Amino acid sequence: MKKRVITLCSMCLMLGGMMTEVWAGDYLTNTNQSISFLRNPSRDAAIDIDGVYYNPAGVNFLDEGWHFQFNWQSPHQKRDSRSSYGQLFGANYSNPGTLEADGSISRLYKGRVHVPIQPSMYLAYNKNDWSFQFGFGIVGGGGTCEFKNGVGSFEALVGQMGMTQMGEAFGGYKLNSYLKGKSYFFGTTLAAARKLNDKVSVSLGVRAIYAWNNYDGYIDNITFRHKATGAEINVPTNYVLDCSQKGLGVAPIIGVDYKVNDYVNLAVKYEFRTPITVKADAKNNDDFNQMAANRPAFANYLDDAETQMDLPSMLAVGVQVSPIEKLRLNVGYHMFMDRDTRQWTRDLVKDTHEITLGAAYDLTDRIEVSAGYQKTMYDQSEANYSDLSFNLNSYSFGFGVGVKVTDKVKLNAAYFQTNYKDHTKTDPQVGSNIAFHRENRVFGVGIDVNF
Predict the structure, then answer these.
(1) Nearest alpha carbon to residue 35 among 22, 24, 50
(2) What does the pLDDT look like over 366-399, one tens digit per residue?
(3) What is the set of domains in the chain, with CATH numbers?
(4) Of 94, 365, 371, 396, which is least surrounded by CB within 10 A?
């Protein structure tokens, strides 16, 4: 019995991987770094102050002087899974499940993420042929994800444990479980760009990323009920997880912007892989540490343990076309080299691909409206899906407005929504059926100042 409880707890810990997944972009990379992105996610060849992140070489084609932008976003996400293991969940006498058409009993497990403030800011100074740039943002993670009742996979283990230990006397089970994870990857960018001529600008920069994760959770009050007598049998389980992880990574970024003419602009950016190793500072209870000492599944959550959390290298290519003076059309392509990171094996994930489309139109000299579309395509094996950690192919759209309140100040507001393709994983060996569902919405406002 104790061995099965330990396995249960290890699966709970694996939930920590869910906290580092992102709002828009790759598994670990947040690309929603400005309000301009929210209202038009095709930013790769746009020439604007948020190009410090999206198109650093293109920032050099802004007017001479100082350019500043501050962005405030508020993302909200649902991460739900509906699981069934035959009729097993019907044995939970404190929380019965839902009867399905095939006779199985399912239960919905909810994960909720709310981020009141996700900031980013950019600063650039342009003089003659040079541009010097600074950027700050949450380039990975970015919030708190809470699972008040756990997920189906470890509830199933509790039920199966009771059936195995009690046999025909098994009359049901109940448990308490909880996990809350926080993850923030703070990125600071320094870059310089130089015009080679009136048409071509090149950039070289470096981004330092400070990663911080925190996990709090427990599994306790596991109880089995005797079928004949109704007596409850308490399982002496009290594992408490309290662990923080911190790490630092640095990687270079290069870019080129080519102004073909007044109507067409081309840009390319390459971000090198950011190797990040986080080190654990754990304050778990003694039972947890004693149990975890000789089990690899728990190694990342013991004090002083090290874990790889690399951000993958990324290639971004963009085109901006202005068929008429007031209209700008954008197309972009992103490739994330996930298979070259240290935390995944190539049989689990391949590279991720994105395409973006967008348009911006000047209604007046003061008011700009824009909208855009992004499609994200993961290439991963079925083994990479679990209710502990899952990513789904998606498409996103955003729209918004920019208003010049003065010649030097512009306000931005936008809405961005991601729609995910639901996925169902069936495992005949354990009799499980898990349906995955996600929703994501982001609101944002920001300000541009030129001086």
Answers:
(1) 50
(2) 999 999 999 999 888 777 777 766 788 899 999 9
(3) 2-450 (2.40.160.60)
(4) 365
209 CB-near residues (< 8 Å, 6+ apart): 139, 140, 185, 186, 187, 188, 248, 249, 250, 251, 274, 276, 311
Residue 50 has, within 13 A of its CA and on its CB side, a CA count of: 26
* Cα–Cα distance measured from residue 448 to residue 45, given in angstroms and rounded to the nearest whole number: 19
Confidence of residue 297 (pLDDT cuts 50, 70, 90): low
Residue 334, Cβ neighbours under 10 Å: how many?
Answer: 22
**17: its two tokens:** 């991987």
The number of C-alpha atoms within 13 Å of 16 and in the hemisphere containing its C-beta is: 24
The model's pTM? 0.87
Beta bridge partners of 190: 134, 206
Both structure tokens of 58: 């293109």
Give yes or no for a contact between 147 and 15, defined as CB atoms under 8 angstroms apart: yes
Q: Are strands 105-114 and 423-427 parallel, antiparallel or unpaired?
A: unpaired
Q: Rounded to the nearest 5°, which phi and psi values hold at 267?
A: -150, 150
Q: Which residues contact 245 (CB under 8 A, 6 or more apart)?
A: 211, 212, 213, 214, 278, 279, 280, 281, 300, 307
Residue whose C-alpha is closest to residue 244's, from 209, 212, 221: 212
- The closest of 402, 262, 414, 317 to 42, measured between CA atoms, is 317
Nearest to 352 by CA among 313, 383, 390, 318: 313
Collect all residues with Cβ–Cβ distance below 8 Å to 319 and sequence separation of at least 6.
45, 264, 265, 266, 267, 330, 331, 332
